[in-house]
Amino acid sequence: MNIPITSFPRIIIIGGGFSGIALAKKLSKQEVQVVLLDKNNYHTFQPLLYQVSTGGLEPDSIAYPIRKVLKNFPNFHFRLANVTQIDDKNNTVITDIGNLKYDYLVVASGSTTNFFGNAEVEKHSMAMKTIPQSLNLRSLILENFEDALLTSDLNERNALMNFVIVGGGPTGVELAGALAEIKKGILPKDYPDLDTRSVQINVIQSSDSILKGMSEKASEKAEDFLEKLGVNVWKNLRVTNYDGKTVTTNTDLVFETATVIWAAGVKGALIKGLDAADFVTRSNRLLVNSFNQVKGYKHIFAVGDIACMVTDDFPNGLPMMAQPAIQQGRQLGDNMLRLIEGKPMQPFIYKDKGTMATIGRNKAVVDLKRFKFQGIFAWYIWMFVHLFFLIGFRNRMVVFVNWVYNYVRFDREARLIIRPYKKKNKV
Ligand SMILES: Cc1cc2nc3c(=O)[nH]c(=O)nc-3n(C[C@H](O)[C@H](O)[C@H](O)COP(=O)(O)OP(=O)(O)OC[C@H]3O[C@@H](n4cnc5c(N)ncnc54)[C@H](O)[C@@H]3O)c2cc1C
User: Fold this and answer.
1) Does residue 320's CB lie within 6 angstroms of at least one atom of ligand 1?
2) Cβ of 19 less than 6 Å from ligand 1
3) Scanning 65, 92, 303, 365, which has its CA 20 to 30 A from the CA of 104?
4) Is the CB of 109 under 6 A from ligand 1?
5) What does the pLDDT read at residue 342?
6) Contact 372 CB / ligand 1 (< 6 Å)
7) Diameter of the chain by CA atoms?
8) Those residues with Cβ within 8 angstroms of residue 224's Cβ, 6 or more apart along the chain or in another chain
């Protein structure tokens, strides 16, 4: 890998997501050698992936080169590498570009879509966890309308214009809101020959409310916003299968559809090895103590989505969200320096800064510790927070300008089929 040998302890970080970047920033000015490995050369701002999928933003405005985030730090090294295994006996990570020894290892590999073992659903439905996946979804949505225009088979046309989103969490809700706006504002102009009133957008939620982690008020209001936008919200309904044409559920209800978007869950992106570690089977997350040490190891840590830190307030582990990831990354940076200096580490305490989701133009729900509000003010807050946390001045500017343009013009100009998506068993 051509990493220089120094007298400083070597810390390898796997993953340049929210937690990995926060950690690397803390450590890079210190007397340690930091090696960050990621299979992409960019950081992805996942909260805005749905806007890429729906043509609201270009992908490069939510991605940022990892090398640029950490430029000018002499002890920092980035390598574009897919880590395939951790050899804990020899303190070595095994990657597709070679192996590297570590003094300390931090797993910050995030999460992947959880299909809960249903291989057929996984094969036929669309995930939205990465930029390539979002671009696939964008292409598929647009291709569906092109195909709907060509077919004379009514059932086929309806299936092409029927969208099923599985999961009523923030991702499902935000995506449904964006699709509803496309239906209202874009489709009638782009496809005047198509009866786009028959476009159906369905959100299927297995429990009795959407936005489960948020307040009752936020959940009710979000449902109200969605229904006003014409989205069908199905609660207490569980998807049992999707064969590429038909979604079956735990009731008699079925959906004939060419597009299922799976936003029903995520699981830790586990890497092979770490045989002594404890992990939570259902969510595939590594159990860590309050110092983010992986249980069973002294020199191996985990932060962000992959780490399951159980607290009194969060008996199933801290939420798989950006804030815990960023806060853990920062705190671990301080703790690793303490550890190296022989000082005691400080336990991590999560500061819950609130949760929010937007449901299209002028509509959002925000739950802060003391205040909960919904509507246009919440929407402004949502926009401000997302702009603030985006990495890079150019990205902030581009996203802001796009949002203003889309708002004023009721438009989404990134509705482009750049890389056609070939779905197996297309309707
Ligand atoms: C569609 C969507 C919307 C979301 N919306 C919100 C929101 O509104 N608010 C919020 O707080 N959170 C949101 N989240 C969750 C939030 O993005 C995650 O909690 C956060 O990204 C976790 O940070 P992380 O550092 O653990 O992992 P990530 O940010 O996922 O980064 C993991 C990194 O590890 C790399 N990697 C993984 N495996 C390997 C390997 N084997 N080798 C090399 N590199 C590897 C990946 O390429 C990636 O760069 C959303 C997530 C999604 C998918």
Assistant:
1) yes
2) yes
3) 65
4) yes
5) 94
6) no
7) 74
8) none
| Residue entry with tokens 């936003």 | 263
Any alpha helices (H) in 54-103, and if so which ranges?
A: 66-69
Q: CA dihedral defined by 100, 103, 109, 110, rounded to 10 degrees?
A: -170
Picking from 99, 107, 96, the residue whose alpha carbon sits closest to that of residue 36 is: 107
What's the whole-model pTM score?
0.96
Active site residue 220: no
Q: Pairing state of beta strands 285-287 and 279-280?
A: antiparallel
Q: What are the Cα distances from residue 325, in Å, to 22, 260, 308?
A: 8, 29, 11
Q: If you average pLDDT over residues 139-164, what whole number do you get?
A: 97
Atom of ligand 1 nearest to the CA of 84: 41
Contact at 8 Å (CB) between 317 and 280? yes
- Which range is least confidently modeled, 48-52, 160-164, 201-205, 388-392? 388-392
CA of 269 to the centre of ligand 1 (A): 10
> Does residue 39 line the site of ligand 1, with CB under 6 A?
yes
Rounded mean pLDDT, 57-84: 95
Overall average pLDDT of the 164-192 stretch: 96
| Percentage of residues in the chain having pLDDT higher than 70 | 99
CA of 184 to the centre of ligand 1 (A): 31
pLDDT tens figures, 108-122: 999 999 999 999 999
